[in-house]
Amino acid sequence: MSLSVADLSFSYGARQALDAVTFDIAPGRFCALLGPNGAGKSTLFGLLTRLFTTAGGRIAVAGHDLDTAPRRALGAMGIVFQQTTLDLDLTVRQNLRYFAALHGISGREADTRIDAALDRLDMRARAGERARALNGGHRRRAEIARALVHRPRTLLLDEPTVGLDAASRSAITDHVHDLCGDGLTVLWATHLTDEVRADDHLLILHQGRILRDGRAAEITAGSNLSDTFLTLTRVAA
Ligand SMILES: Nc1ncnc2c1ncn2[C@@H]1O[C@H](COP(=O)(O)OP(=O)(O)OP(=O)(O)O)[C@@H](O)[C@H]1O
């Protein structure tokens, strides 16, 4: 499995944010983690990226246990956080070069990888522009390209379309779906049902618990996802 999470629980003091969360994502799959505000998506991302830790449960990335082999596990992961982390005064290429250097990649090898990552997001023509000059959608694409430079096996994105207009949102959702299939696995957190496709692996998270885990089309069973999601999250509220 590309990403394996078993029996993960987490509390902020008395408030339980995750309750025995368990799922596996197969290599090359796009997995949508769909949950309303407060479902626990960011908490799960915090644990996956080791921003914080919890005593119980287990996380493995590309077979590497996050507790016992954190460098390998984190090295197999690309991460795009909700808030932008580009240096707005640097060009797109400089931002990616800086990130590559942090991973010990420099010189011609870095440039080759950066060009390939920018091509995957259709961003090569923007490489020389300062991040500040880009619109929100292109900044996000630059960040996604940056997260691919070290060739991760699994890409995590925490609500990557927040604050974007409809056209940029749809373009980024398409781009990231296109990234899957050649071995890259994606975990995409969202509260927007229109970002999920029928063939996606879908996890519905509500109040810290996984309510559904399967192919989106099977979960909706002919109904539309928005209705299914509202019904599920209303019933369990
Ligand atoms: N630092 C904190 N201290 C206390 N409770 C917190 C803290 N961070 C989150 N919570 C609570 O934990 C639960 C899960 O929050 P989390 O931010 O993980 O959800 P989310 O699905 O990412 O929501 P959103 O879409 O609003 O970001 C919520 O009930 C939230 O109020």
How would you describe this protein?
This protein is α/β, with parallel strands linked by helices. It has two domains: 3-76 and 152-235, P-loop containing nucleotide triphosphate hydrolases (Rossmann fold); 86-151, no CATH class. The chain contains eight helices and ten strands. The chain has a six-stranded mixed β-sheet with strand order 6-7-8-3-9-10, sandwiched between helices. Strand 9 and strand 10 form a beta hairpin. Helix 4 crosses helix 5 (136-146) and helix 5 (136-146) packs parallel to helix 6 (166-179). The protein is globular. The two termini are 32 Å apart. The structure holds adenosine-5'-triphosphate. Adenosine-5'-triphosphate is lined by residues 12, 15, 17, 35, 37-43, 191. Residues 3-232 form the ABC transporter domain. Keywords: ATP-binding, Nodulation, Nucleotide-binding, Transport. This is ABC-2 type transport system ATP-binding protein. One of its GO terms (molecular function) is ATP binding. Belongs to the ABC transporter superfamily.
